[in-house]
Amino acid sequence: MNIRTTLFFLHRLLCKQSPFLNLFRSREVGIIGAVSFIAGTMIGAGIFISPQYVLSSIGSPGASFIIWSCCGLIAMLGGLCYAELGTIIPESGAEYIYILRTVGKVVAFMFVFSFITVMRPASGTGIALSFAEYAVAPFYSGCTPPQLVVKLVAAGSIFSSLFLPWTTFDRY
């Protein structure tokens, strides 16, 4: 490769038409992205499943709305706590860094170990089951779908999400 080719590629890298330009992202989050991230993290998929169980066990729409609003307030306060921690401790690593800086290495390791082995898989399973319930419901109108079908669809969604990162949709 001669100097002219090197300068051409360097120019392409630095100019606005470069295909490599979108590899370098800025470390900024706008207000819409921040609110969406915090709401999605704190509220999650449970907001779509839990109201029907709360309403069926309480029986009163007004009381279930009050409980639902209180839980939303608690989730919002949790999101604000995460936002405050993120501004105080501006390092990557989320909960691990927060626990490491406040409690110590042993507790932070125990948290990460339990997060990887228990909490993250249980969260993924809950999201997959709630997706499966909504995906199967149109095929069983008027009755509840069999649990085996719901669990098979949930397992299929988990396995498909395992292989989804290996596929790309925007090839050059």
UniProtKB/TrEMBL annotation:
Database matches in Gene3D superfamilies: Amino acid/polyamine transporter I
A Pfam short name: AA_permease_2
Chief location: membrane
Membrane topology, from the record: Multi-pass membrane protein
Assigned keywords, A-Z: Membrane, Transmembrane, Transmembrane helix
Transmembrane intervals: 29-53, 65-85, 148-166
Record localization: Membrane
Source superkingdom: Eukaryota
Any one GO cellular component localisation term in the record: membrane
GO terms for MF: L-amino acid transmembrane transporter activity
Identification of the protein by name: Zmp:0000001267
Annotated source species: Amphilophus citrinellus
